[in-house]
């Protein structure tokens, strides 16, 4: 039996984080989510720096692109260059549908790129698919004993 | 040197006619006021550049201008080099050019003005000039010509040339202003539609979430209000997306290459396959030409026109006929259908952005399709219009240049 997956949501819009939380809760796969609202905090969280010394290592990162301070592309780049963090799958979840963003993100090592749909039903469909795949079907790296 | 001395020197100019280059500037400065003395009526200032080798002709021209109400100041030059140097140094209202100089043809000055990108009217002032030669000068770009025997005409010619130049300046200014304001407007439409998407998405999803969670748990009025809010948000989303699609047309320039319209129509029809099957539509097209065009834009143009012909079909299954005919330097395309048609009073405004002739219940859509068609055709240097009779089908016609325009505007 799987334990609840640990998810880190990186998004500067509280409304989006709440919506994601609502929709993820409809999914049958157990999860626990934390959120941070900018790129700098995301890296501190993942590296357990400052206030995040006791943060849990996430199994999945859901990353918005347009963030204050360090933006999503920079976070992605630093993550994938870090041998410790590079193994965590990153789902880019953003309003941008620009091909340049999609290409750049995959180049930087994103594991999946999803565009935020404009209406609730599509939003639910996309987030449910993401949860079913990443929390259900996909095998994720097991937590290393520390 | 005083103005009078200068004028005297220039008018006497022993060195001038003899072809000896005068000192320093290689051109002579003359103040016309010195010739006629001060007049009582206020004269309009005129800075002239004279191409002339005969000092007495210079004096006659200046006298004529003074008599005609001008206070001219001028430089006199005899060679292309002097002419170019003067143009680069000073601003002139008019160039008066003798047609035949020993060392230079005055008409070459027109070429130099063009090369220097200067719009200064040039008037040929010359001795016997044949009619054919005179017409030829005008064709090459001279504003006018005045025979030396009829110098009294000169002031009026200058005045008319200045008026025309002013009109050209105003037209050019208005044109630049139009281009600028269009660009601003497009930028505004793009930014507005782009940045509106994010907050709109919030409104749409959260009102939908409200409806989903609280439908039937409040009262009937609340349900209705929520429904209106959701509907409004979704509609606005569609509008914003269409506006964005409209402002994206050609935003990154158009990629004009020889494009086979047969393939384009085939691609457009393939994109519309679902609608074609659903409505049992038939599309016929004559052999179509290859035109210089942006293939993605041209596909969208045909797709929008064919799509409309299917959407606004009449009682019969839609039948769409596409033809092309060469008209001088352009191809005239026609997309004819047997649909519901359009009343004549709407022939113009169907192409306006967000213009709809029907309610949303009758036909879906936001009214952007034909506005995009118009933008595409115009970006290719063409024109689009419609002829139709209500109940008897529509005929959308557009012209596209048969060969590539000399300068294709590509915006970065």
Give the beta-strand count of chain B: 13
Helical content of chain B stands at 40-55%
β content of chain B, as a range?
15-25%
Order of strands in the sheet with most strands of chain B: 1-3-2-4-5-6
Strand element count of chain A:
5
| CATH architecture descriptor name of chain A | 3-Layer(aba) Sandwich
- Give the overall average pLDDT of chain A: 91
Q: What number of domains of chain A?
A: 1
Question: What portion of the residues of chain A fall into strands of 2 or more residues?
Answer: 15-25%
Using the coordinates above, name the CATH class of chain A: Alpha Beta
CATH architecture label name of the largest domain in chain B: 3-Layer(aba) Sandwich
CATH superfamily of chain A: Response regulator
Distance between termini of chain A? 22 Å
| Radius of gyration computed on alpha carbons of chain A | 14 Å
Unreliable stretches of chain A, pLDDT < 50, 5 or more residues? none
Main beta sheet of chain B: strand number and arrangement?
6 strands, mixed
Q: What is the H/E string of chain B?
A: HHEHEHEHEHEHEHHEHHEEHEEHEE
Into which percent range does the helicity of residues of chain A fall? 25-40%
Distance between the termini of chain B: 54 Å
Structure notes:
The complex is a heterodimer of chains A (146) and B (412). Chain A has 146 residues and is α/β, with parallel strands linked by helices. Chain A has a single domain (5-137), classed as Rossmann fold. Helix content of chain A is 39%, strand content 17%. Chain A has five helices and five strands; from the N terminus they run βαβαβαβαβα. Chain A has helices at residues 14-25, 39-46, 72-81, 99-107, 120-137, and strands at 5-10, 31-36, 60-63, 90-94, 112-115. In chain A, strands 2-1-3-4-5 form a five-stranded parallel sheet, sandwiched between helices. The longest helix of chain A is centred in the C-terminal third of the chain and has 18 residues, at 120-137. Chain A is globular. The longest helix of chain B is centred in the middle third of the chain and has 61 residues, at 154-214. Chain B folds into two domains: 3-170, Rossmann fold, CATH 3.40.50.2300; 253-412, Heat Shock Protein 90, CATH 3.30.565.10. Chain B has a six-stranded mixed sheet, sandwiched between helices. A five-stranded mixed sheet of chain B has the order 8-10-11-13-12. In chain B, strands 7-9 form a two-stranded antiparallel sheet. Chain B has helices at 3-12, 14-17, 33-36, 55-67, 80-89, 108-115, 131-140, 154-214, 220-248, 261-271, 273-279, 295-311, 369-379, and strands at 28-31, 44-51, 70-77, 94-97, 122-126, 144-147, 257-260, 282-285, 290-293, 319-327, 330-336, 383-388, 394-401. The relative contact order of chain B is 0.07. Chain B has 412 residues and is of the alpha/beta class. Chain A binds chain B through residues 13, 15-16, 19, 22, 95, 116, 118-121, 123, and chain B through 197-198, 200-202, 204-206, 208-209, 212, 234, 237, 241.
